[in-house]
Design a protein that fits this description.
The protein has 65 residues and is mainly α. The chain has three helices and no strands. Helix 1 crosses helix 2. 0% of the residues are buried.
Length: 65
C-alpha cells in the first residue's frame, strides 16, 4: 500500500530539520560566524547561491527517483 503524499512530505521536512540542525548543534560558534558572514552577502549572490542549491537538489532528486 502506498503512503499518502502528505506523509512523505512530512517525513522529508522532518529530515531537512534534522540535517539543518546538525551543524549548529555540533559547532555553535562556527555556525554563528557563518551566519554573520552570510548576512554580508549581497542579494544577487545570495539568489545565485539559492538557485544553485535548488538546481542541485532537483538534479539529485531526479537521479535518486
Amino acid at each position: 500500500m502506498d503512503t499518502p503524499l502528505w506523509h512523505q512530505v512530512l517525513v522529508a521536512f522532518s529530515l531537512v530539520l534534522v540535517i539543518e540542525g546538525i551543524v549548529p548543534f555540533l559547532y555553535p560558534r562556527r555556525w554563528r560566524r557563518l551566519v554573520a558572514q552570510l548576512a554580508m552577502i549581497d542579494d544577487r549572490n545570495m539568489r545565485m547561491i539559492g538557485l544553485v542549491s535548488m538546481l542541485s537538489g532537483l538534479g539529485l532528486l531526479y537521479l535518486v527517483t
